[in-house]
Inverse folding.
C-alpha cells in the first residue's frame, strides 16, 4: 500500500511516542516529523525532531498534525496555533471547556480552510460514540459509564505529594458486583464514588509514619473522601516490578426498554495494557478520517460524532462491505 | 419536539410491529402508514394499513420507508421497488449477496434521487460497526464474533420438521470459557462450531420415539453435525411458559497489540430480550440518518459504515458535544 497520508506529531511525551509507534502499524501513513518546544536530539523512529517554532515551514509537506500536548493548557494554545496551517487531531478532554475549545478551533480552521477533529481518544472518544449510539437506539433507558481498572495519574500524583511517600500509584476499580448487576439488566441509581474503589500502592520512606500516610490519603478531600479506599504499603522493588505500567479501560452500558418488560443491554468495554498507546492508536485512525474529510471538502472543527467509520479504515467501501459488514 | 420525520413501514411481521413500537418512543418521528401485500384490517397503533400496490400514492407524504420484509427474497424485490419513490432503510442480511444488492439499490436510488441505507440492524449493523472501528484502531490483532444466547429461527424450524416433534426452540449459546479467555486477552484459533453450543427444547408428540428424535437432531447435516448439541424434552406447558420469547445477543471482540507484550481488548456486547424489537429500534434510528443524509444532498445506497453517529440522534451537534462527548 502506498503511504498516502503524511502526518506530524506535536508534543513528544507518552502520547506522542504512542502515535509514533501506531503509525508504524499503518501501511498508508507516513510520519514525517516530530515537533516539540523542547530541544529534542532524536526520536525513537529516527524521523526528524523539529522545533515547534518551525512548524509553518512544513505546510504542504504534512497532511495532518496530531496534537499530543500533555495537558489541556498545551492544547488550548497549540490547537489554534497549528490549525492555522494544518488539519489537526487532538485529544482535548477537559469536558467543561469543550464548547469553547470547539468554537475556537472551528473559527480558526474555517478561516484557514483546514479541518480539526477534537476530543479524540477513548473517553472522550470511543466511549462517547457508544453513549450516542446506544441512546439513539434505545431512547428509553439508562446510561452507565465505569472507568478502570486503571491508573489515575492525578490521584497517584496527589499521594506522592504526602510527606513520607517515596512513590505511589492509584488504580481506579469499578465495583464488580455493580457492573455485573447492570450487565444482567438491572438499572440501579448510582453515584460514581459509590461504584468505584480507589486502590493505592505506596512506597514509603524508611522512617515514615504509615498510619499517618494512610490517614492523609483517606481524608484527602475531592480525591479520596467519599470513596472506598484501600492502601497497600509495598517495597520499592515490588513497585518497580508490578506497578510501572499505565493500564486503563472501562465500560459503557445502556440498559433500555422497547416495551414494558422487554429489556436490552448494550455494553462497550475496553481493557487496555497502555492507556497512552491505545489513545494514540485512536488518534492515528482519526488522522485518516481528517484526511478524507478534507478531501470531501470539509473545513472547520468536528468531533468523533461527525465522522463515518468508513473514513477510519484504509480500505475501500467495497472492501468494507464485503469483509466487515 | 416537532414530529419532523414521517416514516412508513413496509411489511407487518415481527420487525414491522417492532418499528411501529419504536416510533412511539421517538418524539421527532411520525408513523404515517403501514404497507402490506396482505389484506390488513388494522394496526396496533391505529395508523392506516394500506395495500403495497398503492405505495406510490404516498410520495411526498412519507420521508423514509422502513422495509421490514421477512426474508431476503422480500427485500430483493421490495427494495428496488420502494427506492424508486422513497428513501429507504432495510435489514438485508444475506451476507454473500450484499455486494449485488448494494449495487442494485445504489443504481435505483441514484436514478430516483433517493437515499437507501441497507443492511441495518445489529449483525449486520452494530456488530459490523464495531468490527470496523476496532480493526481501524488496532490494525495488528484478531477479531472474534459470538452470537447468543439467542433463538435461531432456522434451527428451530429444522427441528419442528422432524416426525414426532410438536414444537421446538433452539438456542445458540457461546461457550463461556472461550468468551472469558478472549475477554482476558487470549487469542485462540477457533472455529464457530467449536465455540457455540446448540441447546434444543423439544415438545414431542405423546407417542413419539424420543431417542429417534434426539438422534435425528444431532445427526442433521449443516444444522447440528459438528456442534455440541443438547436436547431437552419438555412439556407443552413448560414450553409455553418459558420459551415463547425471541431473545438474542452476542459479542464482538478485537484483541490487538500496539507493541510487543502490550495488549488491548475491545468488546461490544448485546443482551436482547427481543431480537425483532431491538432490530426495529436500530432501523428507526437509521431512518433519522436517512432523512439527514437526504437533507445533506445524498443520493444512492450506503451502509452503517457511511453514516456519522450524530445523524442518529434528534439532538443538535451542540447538545451532543455538551451532553455525550
Amino acid at each position: 500500500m502506498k503511504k498516502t497520508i503524511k502526518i506530524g506529531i506535536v508534543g513528544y511525551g507518552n502520547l506522542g511516542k504512542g502515535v509514533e509507534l501506531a503509525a508504524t502499524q499503518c501501511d498508508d501513513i507516513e510520519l514525517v516529523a516530530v515537533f516539540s518546544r523542547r530541544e529534542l536530539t532524536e526520536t525513537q523512529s529516527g524521523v526528524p525532531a523539529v522545533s515547534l517554532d518551525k512548524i509553518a515551514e512544513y505546510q504542504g509537506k504534512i497532511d495532518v498534525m496530531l496534537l499530543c500536548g500533555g495537558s489541556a493548557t498545551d492544547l488550548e494554545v497549540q490547537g489554534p496555533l497549528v490549525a492555522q496551517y494544518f488539519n489537526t487531531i487532538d485529544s482535548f478532554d477537559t469536558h467543561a471547556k469543550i464548547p469553547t475549545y470547539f468554537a475556537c478551533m472551528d473559527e480558526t480552521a474555517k478561516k484557514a480552510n483546514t479541518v480539526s477533529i477534537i476530543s479524540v481518544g477513548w473517553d472522550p472518544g470511543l466511549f462517547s460514540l457508544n453513549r450516542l449510539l446506544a441512546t439513539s437506539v434505545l431512547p428509553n433507558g439508562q446510561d452507565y459509564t465505569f472507568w478502570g481498572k486503571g491508573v489515575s495519574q492525578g490521584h497517584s500524583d496527589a499521594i506522592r505529594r504526602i510527606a513520607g511517600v517515596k512513590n505511589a500509584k492509584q488504580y481506579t476499580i469499578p465495583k464488580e458486583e455493580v457492573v455485573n448487576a447492570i450487565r444482567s439488566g438491572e438499572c440501579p441509581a448510582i453515584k460514581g464514588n459509590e461504584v468505584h474503589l480507589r486502590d493505592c500502592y505506596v512506597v514509603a520512606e524508611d522512617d515514615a509514619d504509615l498510619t499517618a500516610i494512610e490517614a492523609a490519603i483517606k481524608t484527602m478531600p475531592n480525591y479520596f473522601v467519599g470513596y472506598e479506599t484501600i492502601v497497600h504499603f509495598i517495597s520499592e522493588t515490588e513497585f518497580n516490578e508490578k506497578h510501572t505500567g499505565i493500564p486503563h479501560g472501562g465500560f459503557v452500558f445502556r440498559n433500555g426498554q422497547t416495551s414494558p418488560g422487554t429489556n436490552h443491554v448494550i455494553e462497550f468495554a475496553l481493557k487496555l495494557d497502555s492507556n497512552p498507546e491505545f489513545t494514540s492508536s485512536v488518534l492515528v485512525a482519526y488522522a485518516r478520517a481528517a484526511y478524507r474529510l478534507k478531501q470531501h471538502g470539509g473545513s472547520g472543527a468536528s468531533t468523533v460524532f461527525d465522522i463515518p467509520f468508513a473514513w477510519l479504515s484504509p480500505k475501500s467501501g467495497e472492501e468494507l462491505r464485503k469483509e466487515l459488514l
Q: What stands out?
A: Chain B touches chain A through 66 residues (CB under 8 Å).
